[in-house]
Design a protein that fits this description.
One of its GO terms (cellular component) is cytosol. Pathway: Quinol/quinone metabolism; menaquinone biosynthesis; Quinol/quinone metabolism; 1,4-dihydroxy-2-naphthoate biosynthesis; 1,4-dihydroxy-2-naphthoate from chorismate: step 6/7. Belongs to the enoyl-CoA hydratase/isomerase family. MenB subfamily. Helix content is about 40%, strand content about 15%. It has two domains: about 5-220, 2-enoyl-CoA Hydratase, Chain A, domain 1, CATH 3.90.226; about 225-270, Lyase 2-enoyl-coa Hydratase, Chain  A, domain 2. It is α/β, with parallel strands linked by helices and about 280 residues long. It contains eleven helices and 13 strands. It has a seven-stranded mixed β-sheet with strand order 1-2-3-4-8-10-13, sandwiched between helices. The structure holds ligand LW2Y6JES.
C-alpha cells in the first residue's frame, strides 16, 4: 500500500494539522506532558475540526497524539485551576486560551466531535487516559497500537466525566464494565480493550498509521451522505432532541432536492398558491 504524503494544513502551537487524500489528521503535540490538553490545545483542536468539517475535499478525520508514548493523558493538571481552567494573570503564557472565569473548554469540543458529520478515527499509541480516554471514546472508530493503554483516572485526581465520558462508554462496553473502568481506575491493554469492544483493531506500533489510513481509505470509497446519515442515526436516540434534530435536518436537506419542496419555494417567489396536488400522499 502506498504511503500517505501528509501536507501541513495550518500553523498551530499545541497541535499539528495535516491533510492528504481526503483525510485530515489532528495531532495533539505536547509529548512532554503525554499530550495532556490545556485550554489552547482544545481551542486549536476545535478550529482544526471545524476546518476539516467545512472542507468538502475531506471525508474522514484522524485524531491522534504526537509520539509513541501517549494519545492523550487528559486535562493538563498543572494548569487546572480551582474553578475550571483559568487564565493565570501573573503568567498568561502558562494558560494560553484559559478563561478569566473557570470553564471547561472540552465540553463544547465533545459536542463538536459528536455532531461532526464525518467519521473521526482515533489513532492510539501509548496512554489514552482520563480526558484523553474520553476523546478516543468519542471518536467513531479506534485503531490501537499494541502498546496502547486505556483507562479513566478521574476519581483518583478529583474529577469525573458524567457526560459522554460515562454514557457513550456504557454504550460501548456495557454498564457493569463502564462502572468498573470509572470506579476502579484500572489500566487496560490494547488486547483487553479489543475484547471489550472499546477499540476496532490492534496492530504493531510501526503499522499504526498505515492501518489507520487503510481504514480511512476504505471509508472514503463509500457514499459520504450514507456515512453522514449513519453517524447521525447511531447518535439520534442517545443524543435526545439534539440527535433527532441532526437526523431530521439531514432529511430536510434531501427533501429540498425534491420537486415537492421546490414547488413550495417557487410558489412563494412567484406570489401564487402552491400546487401540491400532483405529489403522492404516500401510504
Ligand atoms: C499518562 C501517565 C500514565 C504516563 O506515565 P509515564 O509514562 O510514567 O509518564 P510521567 O513521567 O508520569 O509523565 C511525563 C510528564 O508528563 C506530565 N504529565 C502527564 N500527564 C499529565 C497531565 N494530565 N497533566 C499535566 N502533566 C502531565 C508528567 O507530570 C511528567 O512531567 P514532569 O515534568 O516530568 O513531572 C501519567 O503521566 C499520568 O497518570 N498522568 C496523569 C493522568 C491524569 O491524571 N489526567 C487527568 C485526568 S482528569 C481529566 O482528564 C479531565 C479532563 C476532561 O476531559 C474533563 C471532563 C469533564 C469535565 C471537565 C474536564 C476537564 O477538562 O477537566
Amino acid at each position: 500500500m502506498a504511503a500517505i504524503e501528509w501536507k501541513e494544513a495550518g500553523e498551530f502551537t499545541d497541535i499539528k494539522y495535516h491533510k492528504a487524500e481526503g483525510i485530515a489528521k489532528i495531532t495533539i503535540n505536547r509529548p512532554e506532558v503525554r499530550n495532556a490538553f490545556r485550554p489552547l490545545t482544545v481551542i486549536e483542536m476545535s478550529r482544526a475540526l471545524d476546518d476539516a468539517r467545512e472542507d468538502t475535499e475531506i471525508g474522514v478525520i484522524i485524531l491522534t497524539g504526537e509520539g509513541p508514548d501517549a494519545f492523550c493523558s487528559g486535562g493538563d493538571q498543572k494548569v487546572r485551576g480551582d474553578t475550571g481552567y483559568l487564565e493565570d494573570p501573573e503568567n498568561p503564557q502558562r494558560t494560553p486560551g484559559g478563561a478569566s472565569v473557570g470553564r471547561f473548554h472540552v465540553t463544547d469540543f465533545h459536542v463538536q466531535m459528536r455532531r461532526c458529520p464525518k467519521p473521526i478515527v482515533a489513532m492510539v499509541a501509548g496512554y489514552a487516559i482520563g480526558g484523553g480516554h474520553v476523546l478516543h471514546v468519542l471518536c467513531d472508530l479506534t485503531i490501537a497500537a499494541e502498546n496502547a493503554i486505556f483507562g479513566q483516572v478521574g476519581p483518583r485526581v478529583g474529577s469525573f466525566d458524567g457526560g459522554y465520558g460515562a454514557s457513550v462508554l456504557t454504550q460501548l462496553v456495557g454498564p457493569k464494565k463502564a462502572k468498573e473502568i470509572w470506579f476502579l481506575c484500572r489500566r487496560y491493554t490494547a488486547r483487553e480493550a479489543l475484547e471489550m469492544g472499546l477499540v476496532n483493531a490492534v496492530v504493531p506500533l510501526e503499522r499504526l498509521e498505515e492501518e489507520t489510513v487503510r481504514w480511512c481509505r476504505e471509508m472514503l470509497e463509500k457514499s459520504p451522505f450514507a456515512l453522514r446519515m449513519l453517524k447521525a442515526s447511531f447518535h439520534a436516540h442517545e443524543d435526545g432532541f439534539a440527535g433527532i434534530q441532526q437526523l431530521a435536518h439531514d432529511a430536510n436537506l434531501l427533501f429540498y432536492g425534491t420537486e415537492e419542496a421546490q414547488e413550495g419555494r417557487d410558489a412563494f417567489k412567484e406570489k401564487r398558491r402552491p400546487d401540491f396536488s400532483k405529489f403522492p400522499r404516500r401510504p
